[in-house]
Amino acid sequence: MGTVDNDKKVAAGIPQADHDAAVAAATELGETKGYDKGVAAGAAAERGRLQAIDDLAIDGHDDLVAKAKTDGWSAADTATAILKAEKTLRASELAGIKGVEADTGKVPAAPAAGDLGGGKKDDKPAAAKTDDELKADFAASPKLQAEFADVMDYCAIVRAEAAGKVRVLGQPAAA
User: Fold this and answer.
1) Nearest-CA neighbor of 126 among 93, 163, 89, 97?
2) Apex CA 60: angle with CA 56 and CA 65, to 5°?
3) Which distant-in-sequence residues (6+ apart) come within 8 Å of 158 by Cβ?
């Protein structure tokens, strides 16, 4: 075996030029194959990243997901950003709900069926009244007229409640 100027050992009988050409071709082929493998691996990794981000997507966060894809965020970074956005959104919604509860808490509860007369107060429960007395209560009460379509509906609900067939929410069952 002979040696060349740069201390490469060349097999006996192979001209230096052929050796150098073979090394250059092998190097180029190796670089090309390595490059192709690297591109394929990178493309597969990018498809996986995009799919992971798509799997995290929640309605209403489309802009955030698009930003994550274009800016190269990891799935973990995207999940963190979506979670923060959701927490902010939920806190805002909760404040709105509490505001509604504060406003509706001021609305008085509906009066019991026997208390809807609005006219003179008597101690006789509605269930113990005659139909004529119920009709008189209905005629004298704008509240009853607003709640019931007609006097017969009012009489029917009073009788059904007294019989235990219906119950007004928040009221004890009729005895």
Assistant:
1) 163
2) 45
3) 113, 114, 126, 127, 129, 134
Q: What are phi and psi of 2, to 5 degrees?
A: -105, 165
DSSP secondary structure code for residue 120 in this structure: S
Q: CA 143, CA 163: separation in Å to the nearest integer? A: 23
What stretch of H or E contains 143? helix 142-147
Rg over alpha carbons for the chain, rounded to the nearest Å, is: 43
- Residue ranges of the alpha helices (H) in 2-111? 16-56, 62-71, 75-104
Structure-token match 């929640």, residue found: 58
Amino acid found at 44: A
Write the DSSP symbol of residue 123.
S
Is residue 132 over pLDDT 50? yes
| CA 167 distance to own-chain centroid | 36
Q: How many CB atoms lie within 10 A of CB 170?
A: 8
Q: Residue holding tokens 């965020």? A: 73
pTM recorded for the entire structure: 0.42
Name the nearest CA neighbour of 97 among 85, 86, 105: 105
Q: What does the alpha-carbon distance between residue 55 and residue 72 come to, in Å, rounded to a whole number?
A: 16
pLDDT of 151 > 80? The answer is: yes
